[in-house]
Specification:
By secondary structure, the chain is mainly beta. The protein has helices at residues 4-10, 38-42, 289-292; strands at residues 18-19, 31-32, 70-84, 87-105, 109-120, 123-133, 136-160, 165-186, 189-190, 193-194, 202-224, 227-236, 238-243, 252-255, 259-269, 272-282, 298-313, 316-328, 339-354, 357-373, 376-390.
Length: 392
């Protein structure tokens, strides 16, 4: 069986045809999938609480104004095309980046349980070549398949200590699995003539499990009635990669960095607000040579958006949102940093509310974006739909 070191090396290979989800999932721990709901996506957010109560992994303060026990989930289909040198193709997938439950503790506290995506490692690549067999060139096809993801499961608590200050914290684990398969198949004919002794192909598979702790500290401060400031420090312990039974290799670990996030919202009128946020983390030293070589170093995300409640619809207001977001991904691709830019639009439909706060709502965001890494370019469209339902 192919050993673990060789399978890890395969992620740095970029053969020509690509299919499935984004091939960027082949770098490092995979393609970063931030656990953001539709409100954050529409506003270009970075995962810090906004004035719309919601449930976010790693930020219990976002749920402080939820009045009743509430469940929420977010589904996110996306479609895109890629171009690298002369090769072109498309990809698509559907993810569940956020699942959550919030239970209010009176009017000043809340407990949350969340699960959210963190890295996506689903991709496939295929290359074709030929080898000399008995003086004849026999065509072959190599296929690399990767199926896996890293997700987070967290328990959070937050409390409002005064009318202007709230604090919260979360504790949780990184969990995931990864299966990588290499298949080599040979053509059974040469110049349309069947081979007398066809060459037998082979398949090799490796499986690993991911695990590790994580925690966050959250702060929200309202210095005035028109200004809200939020901040989060997210810590992730060493993510262990343990080979499953039957897979060669030793357990290894990745030292994921601390991430700092800050966001501010200015309420310009009862129906109009603008927000801006930033997040930064340093992926330079991960403690794993193969991943350090693919590291993007310090990566930063900036986002900004505007929310305008144009009218009432159904059981409450009908806010329209628009935003812009520019981010860098933690891992390089083709030895180039990966940059992502998106513009977004979204809205919310309040289906039920109490005391002016939503108990059931549908949030939607549409993003159009691009990713660039040297000669590699992706264009994608992402739809994010969040549903929040609360009750006794």
């Amino acid at each position: 069986m192919m050993n673990r070191s060789l399978l890890l090396a395969l992620v740095m290979i970029v053969p020509s045809p690509v299919s499935g989800q984004s091939v960027l999932g082949s770098s490092g721990l995979g393609l970063r999938i931030e656990p953001l709901d539709a409100v954050q996506r529409a506003l270009g957010g970075v995962g810090v609480a906004t004035r719309t109560p919601t449930i976010l992994p790693g930020n219990a303060i976002a749920s402080l104004d939820i009045l009743a026990p509430t469940v929420a989930f977010t589904v996110q289909p996306h479609w895109g095309t890629y171009e690298v040198d002369s090769e072109q193709g498309d990809f698509s997938a559907t993810r569940f980046p956020v699942l959550g439950f919030a239970y209010p503790l009176g009017t000043n506290g809340v407990v949350t349980v969340t699960a959210g995506s963190r890295f996506d490692q689903n991709w496939s690549v295929e290359s074709q070549d030929s080898v000399d067999v008995g003086g004849q060139r026999v065509g072959l096809t190599d296929t690399f398949l990767s199926d896996g993801a890293v997700a987070t499961i967290q328990v959070g608590w937050a409390r409002r200590w005064s009318t202007t200050l709230a604090m919260g914290t979360t504790l949780g684990v990184n969990r995931g699995g990864l299966t990588r398969t290499f298949t080599r198949s040979f053509e059974t004919t040469v110049d349309s003539v069947p081979l007398v002794s066809p060459v037998e192909g082979f398949t090799s598979t490796g499986r690993w499990h991911h695990s590790g702790p994580l925690a966050s500290l959250n702060l929200a401060w309202d210095p005035s009635s028109v200004l809200q400031v939020g901040a989060t420090v997210a810590w992730s312990g060493r993510i262990k990669l343990n080979p499953a039974e039957g897979t060669d290799g030793m357990s290894r670990g990745v030292s994921a960095p601390i991430e700092f996030k800050v966001s501010t919202t200015a309420v310009l009128s009862p129906t109009l607000a603008v927000n801006a946020g930033a997040a930064t983390s340093n992926w330079t030293d991960l403690g794993e040579p193969g991943l350090d070589a693919a590291s993007g170093g310090r990566v930063t995300t900036f986002g900004a958006g505007v929310e305008w409640e144009v009218t009432n619809f159904w059981a409450g207001g009908f806010p329209l949102r628009a935003g812009f977001r520019r981010s860098q991904l933690p891992f390089r691709f083709l030895n180039n940093k990966v940059k992502e830019n998106t513009v977004s639009f979204g809205f919310s439909v309040i289906m039920a509310q109490a005391l002016g706060l939503p108990l059931a709502a549908l949030d939607l965001a549409v993003e159009v974006g691009s990713r660039d890494a040297g000669s590699f370019k992706e264009r994608f469209r992402r739809l994010t739909v969040s549903v929040r339902v609360g009750g006794q």
